[in-house]
Amino acid sequence: MTPDIESLIRAASGRPDEIRAALDKLGLARVAELAVAEWTLRLDPPSNPLEIHIGLSVSDGRETADHTWVLRAGEPVRVLPGLHPGCEVRLRYDAEELITELWGPSRGRSSPSRAYELATAMDTHFPPRERQPSIAAASATLTAALSARAPDLGALAVRYGSDKWGQTHWFTQHYERHFAPLREEPVRLLEIGVGGYENEESGGGSLKMWRRYFPRASVFGLDYFDKSRFSGPRLTVVRGDQNDPAQLDALAKEHGPFDIVIDDGSHINEHVLTSFRALFPYVRSGGFYVIEDLWTSYLPGYGGDDRDFGVPTTMLGLLKTLLDDLHHQERDSDGEPSRDTAGEPSATEAGLVGMHVYHNIAFLEKGRNAEGGIPRWMPRAPHW
Ligand SMILES: C[S@@+](CC[C@H](N)C(=O)[O-])C[C@H]1O[C@@H](n2cnc3c(N)ncnc32)[C@H](O)[C@@H]1O
């Protein structure tokens, strides 16, 4: 499913003929099926107390593909094939416009391009009053989901059951600060740690949160346990061990490079350092490698150290080392700046351009760290 959606996301950024070509390649039925799945996963929980049927007709000028949503507060949203005879509302879309609206950049679009048809519109007698608020609420739920703007990330964390906001962690404010500029990009995001540990039914909260926050992203999750039940549109879950560099390399070769990698896995210091060394090279320029739960740096049970804070084997030890890598062009190990030595810079020396460390979470910014050291003619000691 995800490769088909990725082809639509690519096409939706392009010219109309590229969108048409993608539509022709996948066929109307497949595109409508993917669009309904995408639209449905973006829905806020319905608030309409009465059950409401809303139809969607997608046309490519030759054929039409129909589906019906069934919405009611407190119940999971259902999708039925075809148009249900009891549809209170029917939305009509041109297939190319729907692709653009769902998967293209918003480009400041303020209103959707659909036709909204109320089943009772042509009646001359007043429709049943008790159904009107529910029809309005269900319509609002559906149309809000097409907006590129999602509720704030903390609210999404709570909604999907991620612990990145509330009680123990206050991370989403930092994520929004760094990720907001990427919001409309077709980012590739990998998170280590799907959640739920041995319970294969449990977890997936943050992956769903990311998929909703980045409407054009391809999201990947890695977990030690089988979490394949959470795979779906734009979301691929892989089983593997974050402490095995060969597995990480194979994963990154198949699904990377990534714009964002987040480590919310075991929080065992050795594992975090292994994953960072294996995956940082697969982060794209302009992207981020994020490490959560830095507090286990101080826990011997996690391979941390509660006495010697300078050891390089903990996450905070790694960050302290990386500060020096960031400044490798200034280092003067044998009396000369290291940029003049023959050795090639390491992956982190060459590719780390920013470090943003907050309480318990670090954002490492990837780029080209080659702006040059301070010139040799600058005095190496105060001369006044
Ligand atoms: C804190 S939970 C992730 C929570 C999730 N990211 C969220 O915010 O909703 C940590 C997950 O890491 C997984 N994990 C533990 N050790 C791992 C390893 N060595 N490799 C991959 N995943 C691991 C656990 O199975 C667990 O599901």
Automatic annotation (TrEMBL):
Tell me where on the tree of life, at the top rank, the source sits. Bacteria
Q: Compositional bias of type Basic and acidic residues: which residue ranges?
A: 328-342
Annotated spans, Disordered: 328-347
**Recorded GO MF terms:** methyltransferase activity
Concerning InterPro entries, the annotation shows: MycE_N, SAM-dependent_MTases_sf
Quick one: which pathway?
Answer: Antibiotic biosynthesis
What are its GO biological-process terms?
antibiotic biosynthetic process; methylation
Which Pfam families does the protein's record reference? MycE_N (PF17843)
Keywords per UniProt: Antibiotic biosynthesis, Methyltransferase, S-adenosyl-L-methionine, Transferase
Does this entry carry the keyword Thylakoid? no
Query: Which intervals hold domain Methyltransferase MycE N-terminal?
Result: 5-113
Q: Report the protein name in the record.
A: Demethylmacrocin O-methyltransferase
| Organism phylogeny | Bacteria, Bacillati, Actinomycetota, Actinomycetes, Pseudonocardiales
